[in-house]
Amino acid sequence: MDDAVTNSPVPSVRSCRTGAWLVGARGSVATTAVLGAAAVRAGLAGPVGLVSELPSLAPAALPSLEDVVLGGHDVVVTGYRKRAEVLAAQGVVPRDLVVALGAELDAADADVVVPAAEPDQRRRVAALAAAMRDFHGRHDLDRLVVVDVSSTQPPLDTDDAELVTDLASPEAVRAAWDAGRSPLPASAEAVWAAYEAGAAVVAFTPSPGVGVPAVAELGRRAGVPWAGADGKTGETLLKSVLAPMFVQRALHVDSWSSFNILGGGDGQALADPVAARSKTATKAAALEAIVGRPVPGPLHIDYVADLGDWKTAMNHVGFTGFLGTRMQLQFTWQGCDSALAAPLVLDLVRLLAACADAGRSGAVPELGFFFKDPVGSHEHALAEQWHALLGLVDELAGRRP
């Protein structure tokens, strides 16, 4: 992709106090985002990895990173400084940044809420919405964007008839609450609270939260934009570049085998086969959509504790060319999950805040560039998604009616 696009002179940023409420605020991705934002603002790190800082996105005049305030909630009580020290020991973030920005990390802890134990789901959701409103007010925010960067959760059990009925509409959920049931999956509680607080939402995980029918309807009624789902940071990113090559060169993909090993909290969560179903479904969808049919080959995700925040993806592709010649492609991707994901979180907060200011509501398919399962779009090829993103930039710049 060529970013050497010349644009007419426009402000690259604008003043818009934007809150980023992180669900799973003390996890690796969130901690890296908090540290990274502080480092860039302090001039201790450059904008490498931040799509929102590319010249091609300048016409959108996104909210400045200086105006982004990070907060959120988590059940974990370990503060940002200690969490960042662990990440530094694993080679995820530079140790000198943790030392230099220790005071900023400590200050950021003040905006992380540890929810009180509350068995009643309606009260949990209400308390979370109140915390979001309080965050909005204390920091005099213009916009609030809630980003789910928590551990992947299992898909909904669609064979549970009572659960399906309870989740059919907002009214059905409230009726279930009146009856003493807690129908919302944990990932949906935060999204429901976000919509109640008037916030935009980023589904950075494949958890079912935003896709629950009642929650989706609540979002439509709230009139806010949202984007998702499941951040595209590693193996699927490569597939969305390589798979179109085979299609456009009329080469037949015979098989595509993918073997993933990772550590960290996400790897531990995905060690549960039920939870892993959400992730493998989104990883498989891109290849099938691009090739136009199911492609044989196993797709494994395995937890290896000592990898920490690092992940390795090994792929073997069998394909057939002219006159039936059989060929192969093998590649290995090794990356740090948090260092890949954290800048995208900051990008999406800025982009979605700008979409809200422009009056967009509902799913924003042009942000599919960032996701494995782009809601509102069937396009998975990265180059096409990039052009759609630039179209959104034009819209935000006021170039379209």
UniProtKB/TrEMBL annotation:
Q: Which Pfam families match?
A: Inos-1-P_synth, NAD_binding_5
Which N-terminal stretch is annotated as signal sequence?
A: none
- Domain Myo-inositol-1-phosphate synthase GAPDH-like, by residue range, is 234-338
Matching SUPFAM superfamilies, A to Z?
Glyceraldehyde-3-phosphate dehydrogenase-like, C-terminal domain, NAD(P)-binding Rossmann-fold domains
Q: What family does this belong to? A: Belongs to the myo-inositol 1-phosphate synthase family.
This protein's name: Inositol-3-phosphate synthase
